Amino acid sequence: MEVRTLDAAMGAEITGIDLRALSDDTFEKIRDAFLTHQVIAIRDQVLSPADQLAFSRRFGALEDQLNAHYTVPDFPEVLVLSNDVKDGKPVGLIDGGDFWHSDSSHRPFPSMATILYAVKNPNEGGDTEFANMHAAYEALPAAMKTRIATLKGIHAVSKLKNKRVTVSPRRPDGKDFYERQKSLPDQIWPLVRTHPATGRKTLYVSPRFTIGIEGMGEDEADTILDALFAHQIRPEFVYRHRWRDRDLVMWDNRSVIHQAAGGYVYPDTRTMYRTVVAGDRPF
Ligand SMILES: [Fe+2]
Known about the structure:
The chain is built from six helices and 18 strands. The chain has helices spanning 24-37, 49-57, 133-138, 142-148, 174-181, 218-232; strands at 2-5, 12-15, 39-42, 71-72, 75-82, 85-86, 89-90, 111-120, 127-132, 152-155, 187-190, 192-194, 201-203, 210-213, 238-241, 248-252, 256-262, 271-278. It has an eight-stranded mixed sheet, covered by helices on one side. The chain has a three-stranded antiparallel sheet with strand order 15-9-17. Strands 11-10-14 form a three-stranded antiparallel sheet. β2 (12-15), α1 and β3 (39-42) form a beta-alpha-beta unit. The longest helix is centred in the C-terminal third of the chain and has 15 residues, at 218-232. The chain is globular, with a radius of gyration of 18 Å. The two termini are 34 Å apart.
């Protein structure tokens, strides 16, 4: 197994392994690489949904998928992300990953890691961008670090509660889906969280899910949040992944935000399988 750094911001690629036949020893090396590099791209994997599930489960319990009708038949924990169409119907979730976010920060137990397997890449576009929230936190001005040290962000899943995002017009059921989600409770998490495995501090906000600051008026909260949102995606914190066929990419939602860059148009199709490892309550 070889591990090579991908970018100055973060990220590593791993070659020379087959995830279908993984010793405990090699698995520990992958876990180490994941914690060190925050985003890992494991190249040249030939995986069925069952293989992806088995690998994902080694990291812990998996999340159920909110978009249940877009999961792989008989695999409710494997979500299909796709712009492909069969018999006039979408085969997967089409607007997954738009706007910068950390997966499941709106849940009572936000995600530890997300695992995406490239089933089919488009001919053009389809990159995923990742931003390093350890580096972003460390680079904040001292006054901002002090200002936000004890503040808590409000995280909401429904796009209809968030003035900074829009519902994709490409998604036929989008408005109804996000309308139903409005009743789900918001979650309150520290703006600065401590990584439970490494002890490092990380900036835990995102424009997709963080809609306010607990106990603070909207104008004051917006000033802080808009400054953090602009800061956290500065180019020096961002690694842009250009997918290769048979890539399996895994990232740490506790220390990374990400977004889908788009840039592909049907009939150029892109299909990914997604599994999500559950995590701890942020502190
Ligand atoms: Fe995501």
